[in-house]
Amino acid sequence: MSKKLRVGILGATGMVGQRYITLLADHPWFEVVLVAASSRSAGKTYEQAVAGRWKMDEAVPTAVRELTILDVNQVSQIAKQVDFVFSAVSMSKDEIKKIEETYAKAEVPVVSNNSAHRWTPDVPMIVPEINPDHTRIIKYQRERLGTTRGFIAVKPNCSIQSYAPALSAWRKFEPTQVVATTYQAISGAGKTFKDAPEILNNVVPFISGEEEKSEKEPLKIWGQVDDQKREIIPATSPIITSQCLRVAVLYGHTAAAFVNFKQKPTKEELIEALENYRGVPQELKLPSAPAQFIQYLTEDDRPQVRFDVNFENGMGISIGRLRTDKIFDWKFVGLSHNTARGAAGGAILCAELLKAQGYITAN
């Protein structure tokens, strides 16, 4: 019998669900034993359900091809077969909130890629290298839900991964103001070039909800657990303003960012802070953790999606073009892989952290 934890994927047929499937194919700790999606796909084999709409470069892994898709609303049936689930369901925000909480109350830990619970006060929103201590809020969440195993944890928006890690490495220099413009890949909308011909030779200067997420989510990540209020209190600085654009790139979110600091670090100090930044995933050598979380590239024309998006199997962050500015103290360019670090891979790393900390266990 396998000693791996049994994993279910909710929303398994979508682009993020497919990325989960490929990333978990040979995972040393987790095994996909169940796939769930909408009632339209229920009853089909996974291979049948994704036929003609498989978006990954890799083939559908053999181990999941013949799994029969269950209706994601069959919570009690699914709960009996898994140790925890990854959630990438495509529903309205209210529907996602309800179904993820229903799974948690059925004593199933939920690690979610969705935004619905990111601002639920006792739900941790985790970048494992930055705020692994926020998982202790789960104790209070379980008390609210009346559960012993079940809870919800979420990963943040994909676009902030291109600049928030750098700002995290620089927290000791007290950043006060940030302007971040993100140039986001079409896979962030679940699209390929085949699905979205309108993006060719085009830039779309609006992505619904992205700017609010970009400005607010880092503050929750940098916040503190308040044991009296039993919630995470967001940080109040730096003030972040952003613009988010969709560009003709398949994978990779790029950010052009400007920063003011209360302290006045040198370029050498900033680069050293980036290159030396480590977290619990590196200390514990979690399976999906990059050995080098952030790399600094010295070339004038880097980072580039073509060369750098797959740094550390897409789980590392690339920073370059750090230079002084006429208005702000410093400016830089960041790059992250939006469906690896920014989506499924980031959630898998969260689950590895939660397992290592004892929050996810065999049922």
Automatic annotation (TrEMBL):
<dbReference type="InterPro" id="IPR036291">
    <property type="entry name" value="NAD(P)-bd_dom_sf"/>
</dbReference>
<dbReference type="Pfam" id="PF01118">
    <property type="entry name" value="Semialdhyde_dh"/>
</dbReference>
<dbReference type="InterPro" id="IPR000534">
    <property type="entry name" value="Semialdehyde_DH_NAD-bd"/>
</dbReference>
<dbReference type="GO" id="GO:0050661">
    <property type="term" value="F:NADP binding"/>
</dbReference>
<feature type="active site" description="Proton acceptor">
    <location>
        <position position="253"/>
    </location>
</feature>
<dbReference type="GO" id="GO:0046983">
    <property type="term" value="F:protein dimerization activity"/>
</dbReference>
<protein>
    <submittedName>
        <fullName>Aspartate-semialdehyde dehydrogenase</fullName>
    </submittedName>
</protein>
<keyword id="KW-0560">Oxidoreductase</keyword>
<dbReference type="GO" id="GO:0051287">
    <property type="term" value="F:NAD binding"/>
</dbReference>
<feature type="domain" description="Semialdehyde dehydrogenase NAD-binding">
    <location>
        <begin position="6"/>
        <end position="138"/>
    </location>
</feature>
<dbReference type="GO" id="GO:0004073">
    <property type="term" value="F:aspartate-semialdehyde dehydrogenase activity"/>
</dbReference>
<dbReference type="InterPro" id="IPR051823">
    <property type="entry name" value="ASADH-related"/>
</dbReference>
<feature type="active site" description="Acyl-thioester intermediate">
    <location>
        <position position="158"/>
    </location>
</feature>
<dbReference type="InterPro" id="IPR012280">
    <property type="entry name" value="Semialdhyde_DH_dimer_dom"/>
</dbReference>
<comment type="similarity">
    <text>Belongs to the aspartate-semialdehyde dehydrogenase family.</text>
</comment>
<dbReference type="GO" id="GO:0009088">
    <property type="term" value="P:threonine biosynthetic process"/>
</dbReference>
<dbReference type="InterPro" id="IPR005676">
    <property type="entry name" value="Asp_semi-ald_DH_pep-lack"/>
</dbReference>
<dbReference type="GO" id="GO:0009086">
    <property type="term" value="P:methionine biosynthetic process"/>
</dbReference>
<dbReference type="Pfam" id="PF02774">
    <property type="entry name" value="Semialdhyde_dhC"/>
</dbReference>
<keyword id="KW-0521">NADP</keyword>
